[in-house]
Give the backbone structure.
Amino acid sequence: MTRADGPSFNVHFRRRREGKTNFAKRLALVKSGKTRMVVRRSNKNIVVQFVDFDPKGDKTLLTVSGTHLAKLYKWPSKRNVWTAYLAGLMAGKMAKKKGVKEFVLDMGMYVPSKGSVVFAAQKGAADAGLGTLFDKEKMPESKLSNPPDKYKGMFNEVKGKIGAG
């Protein structure tokens, strides 16, 4: 009998098959040698993490979500630009205390769009004093400077508390 000589079949990594991880993009971020700021959004929340690469597995330095803001500052936790900015600002302040000086943004499989919550979180971390490269056109400046009237006072108060703390 002869051997089968059909085309070879490669099975990709599970997370690639599921459409959860772009390994080429992840490798480029890891090769930078900088701490990654991972921003993920769910249907109701936003999560900001600072992660360092380790060959045995990534090490999460800290995590801040919209629910942390709700518990500490009574901020109405939602997935919006103002919550993302405050979460990024708070995470940036905490990361600075842990010795992080600069970071690269890891937005995962999200498509970058101008004024999105991902860029608002990055702006918050940059405003906390961490170094990063970013395009100022992508930042939601007009949205951040004009929160809704019912949240304007609370936004400025929480921003002041986080900035001072």
Observations:
- The first helix runs from residue 14 to 17.
- The mean pLDDT is 89.
